[in-house]
Amino acid sequence: MALTSLAPSLSLQKFVSTTLRPTLMPYSELYNWDSCAQFVSDFLTMVPLPDPLKPPSHLYSSTTVLKYQKGNCFDFSTLLCSMLIGSGYDAYCVNGYGSQDLCHMDLTREVCPLTVKPKELPFPGPRNWLDGSYLLELHTIKREEKVLPKKYTIRPPRDLCSRFEQEQEMKRQQEIRAQEEKRLKEEEERLMEAEKANPDALHGLRVHSWVLVLSGKREVPENFFIDPFTARSYSTQDEHFLGIESLWNHKNYWINMQDCWNCCKVPGEGELVGVAGTVWAAGIEASDGSQTWGRAAHQATRALDLLHS
User: Fold this and answer.
1) What separation, in Å, do the N-terminal and C-terminal C-alpha atoms of the chain show?
2) Which pLDDT score, from 0 to 100, does residue 306 have?
3) Omega into 267 within 30° of 0, i.e. cis?
């Protein structure tokens, strides 16, 4: 994967990091990671990999992907990572393994964001980074207005509605909601049982590409993943991400030295302590043998430390 064909008709092979071109878009709406991810997800059409067990034999440039408005997960990640790096984020493309739902862009078991009520927070309120949604939380301000008493007022008309009927209607609505919740819960349990009965035969072997954003730049508080298909952000310990084979940015390429063919076992915390490069091997090294981009390699090991086994 370190060398990829950019022009199959010309049999031209180039270093995979050259596919990333940091670009700052001339639109203020595309300056933050969530808006960039949503643009890529909405603008491009997903094309599945020809072989779910192998990465593509070649990568297209971001210009070509935008021209045809379609691509696989690696094309999505290349475009999104180029935009994020151009906006000042410490972003990396990841070649790894994902769950079946993640690779197939299946959101049937996810909560629809349109059904979630916005939270009421005092303005301006903190921004939620890892809620799986690209929208900011809505902030409302409730101001109590003082009503001045008047000397002469008109009495309001009497309420002729039956309080007993209102109570009965509330009970009926509560029973309907309880029955609907019970039905949804039973349906969810049935789906869970069906999934357990038919496990994915390729679990841990499906190749997928996503974007890793490391903390530090642009006031990012912690590392997180972005799925370019859905524009959702995930914790680095999320169960949808099963392992990492390699990752790269516009400067270098790092290979995971572990045997990741069988679900990619992630090492413990103690195995990552020491010289950078013992777990990750850099594709480009300086003349003195040290890694050219040692800081980025060290931060990449931090991301693997947070990935669950």
Assistant:
1) 24
2) 45
3) no
Inside any domain, residue 276: yes
- How many domains does one find in the chain? 1
Tokens of 41: 């997800």
User: What is the domain extent for residue 285?
Assistant: 3-108+204-306
- Would you state the torsion angle of the CA atoms of residues 200, 205, 211, 212, taken in this order, to the nearest 10 degrees? 100
Buried b (16+ CB within 10 A) or exposed e, 90-115: bbbbbbbbbbbebbeeeeeeeeeeee
Residue 126 lies in a domain: no
Amino acid in position 102: L
Please give the mean pLDDT across all residues of the chain. 75
Inside any domain, residue 182? no
Q: Is 305 helix (H, G, I), strand (E, B) or coil?
A: helix
- State the pLDDT at residue 32: 92
Instruction: Give the domain CATH number at 219.
Output: 3.10.620
